[in-house]
Fold these 3 entries.
Entry 1:
Amino acid sequence: MVNLGELLEVATNGYLVATNHRVVSPPAAVERYSIPFFYNPNLDTVVRPLPFAHASTAPGVTTDPSNPLFAEYGHNELKGWLRAHPRVAERHHAALLATS
């Protein structure tokens, strides 16, 4: 299984769609193996749509208001961190929640 990241969706202008992150734990007696590999650019990197053979058929980036996709990598990372740690974000970084 390969999960596509949000910036690959941005880079292909929606031709490839980012995978929603979810984990289904197996029953207690079953082992689960996962080998994640992350290849990320600098936080200030801006990803623009790439030219490719099927670019003209790309539908555009997902416009889900609860999960906006940003071309700047750091903004997407911040969005993910704020969602992953909501209590910490609310307690220590409330101003960021209002702007993200």
Note: Helices lie at 6-11, 73-84, 86-92, 94-99.
Entry 2:
Amino acid sequence: MSAEFRTFFEDLVPGEVHKFGRYEVKRDEVIDFARAYDPHEFHLSDEAAAQSHFGRLAASGWHTCAMTMRMMVDQMHEKGIASMGGAGVDELRWLAPVYPGDVLRVESELLEKRRSRSRPEMGLIRRRNTVFNQENRAVMSFLVTGMIGLRDPSAPMDE
């Protein structure tokens, strides 16, 4: 593992909750993302959005995922977490619309961790991530399985 890493699998404690991030949703980003990846009219046009159940221009749920990923990676870099990538996402839920002008943040709870049996240099973690807007309203939640490097891959595995 690189010397830039300061937080390894061994340092992570199930039950810990981390609160982080601040991402202001910008109107031009909502439209640019929608134009490229999710061109529903209610993500592209104020007029169309006003006639939809959203009532106004709303960000794509996939854009919300991308903004969240940005906050998560920034947090990993800030904390020096020895991330080796992700193994999957489960139970993704878009709980409330995200609008231009919203300010998003993340709360992440470490649910469990275990050493990889096939890859001694890594452990697997499971987190519940919830994204909130500036009104503390949950707008998205998901479970993620991540791969985290070990400080000492030669240490014996707990049985």
Note: The beta strands are 17-24, 83-94, 103-115, 122-132, 138-149.
Entry 3:
Amino acid sequence: MRFTRVRDLVGVALVAGMVVHLLVRQSYGSLPALPALAGFTLLVLAVVETVLGFALRARIHRKPGTRPVQPLTAARAVALAKASSLLGAIMTGVWVGVLGYVLPQRDELAAAASDTTAAIIGGVSALLLVGAALWLEYCCRTPDGGAESESPNGRD
């Protein structure tokens, strides 16, 4: 398994943003108002993953007073991080796509002004989730001198 590449996430965000922008452009008048805290859940996930990353990093590096991490636990954390980074990239694209439509319209449409706030909160929360997920994935790497150096020929 390889680690998540930022360029892959950027590509996903761009595609999601373009699709959502076109959809919002076609149907904005029939959409309900966006709740101001619609993206807040992503922020909660980002905080949880950041805390989990720090906790796992200490355990993987065998800091005093911590228990070693079971390999399955680390694998589950990496799977969570990969899924969360993808979700964060998609939602970043979604919120930026919405923002790309409502930001220029906010002076003309009252609904666009409130939707701008929701899109900014959602976009920032989604970016924080991507950052937290990449941090969690980074924290699950084995330290130098770990399993890699134990292979018989020095290579994996």
Note: The first helix runs from residue 6 to 27.
